[in-house]
Amino acid sequence: MSSRTATSCISASPIETTMTAQPGLLHYEDFHVGMTIDLGEYPVKAEEIVAFANEFDPHPFHLDHEAGKKSILGGLCASGWHSCAMLMRMLVDGYLSRTAGMGSNGVDEVKWLKPVFAGETLKATMTVLAKRVSSRKPYMGILTMRADVLNAHGERKMEMTAVNLVKVRHP
What we know:
Elements (H helix, E strand, L loop, with lengths): L13 H5 L17 E8 L2 H11 L3 H4 L1 H6 L9 H15 L6 E12 L8 E13 L6 E11 L5 E12 L4
Antiparallel strand pairs: 1-3, 2-5, 3-4, 4-5
């Protein structure tokens, strides 16, 4: 069994409070309630499902095609946590890499609505549900967002509501 050390941070360090706007990146002012961002697609590969399951969630229906077929899920499917990791990849590629982000203080809710099967292609969007500027840290915008993950047939597979902390351009 491998040993791991998990670390986390809440950004908004003193260094960030003195930083000015970051040209070319989206800032708090660029977002509005109801805005939807396309996060792109992610092809789900059987090898990735099995590798993730071996490391983190070794249920038979995540490890073996036949066990998956015999389960209530009906086939080899990704762990819900693997689905979250795939969404995170899409979030980085489609949103975070072009945003003046300051981190997050957490996820409010994750719903795994239907199994994610090997061979599917996932598509995700993110919608701004609410926004406000921090009363204690006026350089920090707080966005509540919902990510929706669907397959190519439009079936909703997963939903996640979370908070993103985004730099205010001109506090």
